[in-house]
Fold each of these.
Amino acid sequence: MVCPHCGSGVIAKKGFSYTKHRPTAQRYVCKECKKQFKARFEEEYSDFPKILLMDIETSFYHFVGWGTYKQYIQHHQITKHQYCLSWAAKWLYDKNVQGDIVTTEEAFERDDKRILKSIWELLDQAEIVIGHNVERFDLRKLNWRFKSQGFGPPTPFKIIDTLTVSRRAFFAPSYKQDFLTKYFKLQNKLETNHKLWEDCESGIPEALNKMMEYNKYDVIGLEQLYLEVRPFIRNHPNLGILLDDNVCPVCTSTDLETTSAVHMTTAYKYPILRCGNCKTASIRDRRNSNRLQNDYRMVP
């Protein structure tokens, strides 16, 4: 990459240009002539952090019992263990929704090893993983299945759980993804029923195809929900660190405006910036607006 103004190869990244909250071009600044220029993204967004949105679908447990009344099911009553029916995932801003589902033969044998390998490979690449109830269910269930099928853990990554975010930020009537996507007029879940899971366990091809479609629609809605609630995520991983650039820590935009508000700690006060793209408020690191440093602290 060289500067189109002076031909210098001494350049630095300056965040991304956005259209409708999606990055469309990488910004650069020339260290020689100080002018900025843009370079359009490749399809795979090679410079953007690897942010994976994912969702899994699982089979039933099969139990034996002594009645239909409310009772505690113990582990020795399990006759067939739960396994992963399918997974769907996409990289943030990528149009391609990936997925995998068991075959008819694998459903009969309750064998999810093949599809676990494919989702393991995606998780191993990810720097951040996003899902709805992903921390308490999807990832823990996958870890159990990874261990059961002889896989080690994937490379560590940060987690953003839109269910946890929604519960912390909002006092909503419901925190289910189906309710939130309908309320915010986003991509809705497909309608399903109990029989779809029964037919998938029976290996019926039409049911498996419908389950894969249902799973992928969940991920499309998940991405839209994440972008909707993103400004309310107080502990969002700092994308500026991954890019090694002075950009909005949430969406990587350079459209930052200093506001009149400040964020105060026990020792400093920091000017608050507002991102023009995702509307998230942030503060500058390592710089503060105090004229004199305060060496005193509150007693813990």
Note: Residues 70 and 208 are 31 Å apart (CA to CA).
Amino acid sequence: MTTNRAPRSTDTRDKQARRKPWAPPTHLAAPPAPEGYVHRWIRVSMRGEEDKMNVYAKLREGWEPVRGEEYPDFAAPTVEDGKYAGVIGQGGLILCRMPAETAAERSAYYGNRTREQMTAVDQDLMKEQHPSMPIHRERQSRVSFGGDRSSE
């Protein structure tokens, strides 16, 4: 009896690559972020006018522009002129990156702010409550599809 000495990782059930179904192209295709980073599209202009406040706020948060030459194997459109020349960009947006750890801290910060605001709204609402007409807070959404068709 002979044993197969090839590693299991080389065995595959697929004899051919599967055909990828057609999908409309996306205008915001981006190269995969390097290990430990996340990518995000940042608005630099809207309707032909620069949005300096948005860009500067995002840069202060820690986002840094991604240059096209960093991804030679990815055919991405780049900004051709101006201060963002060479940066991957499309239609008033530029691609930026941030360390994943910083992005998680940022998300946690904004998540906490949202919870604090909801708590403040709830407390304000409960302050207006009358004992004879209690207010019930229900924070669940429901989806229903049409009526009951069994009675037709």
Note: The longest helix spans residues 100-127.
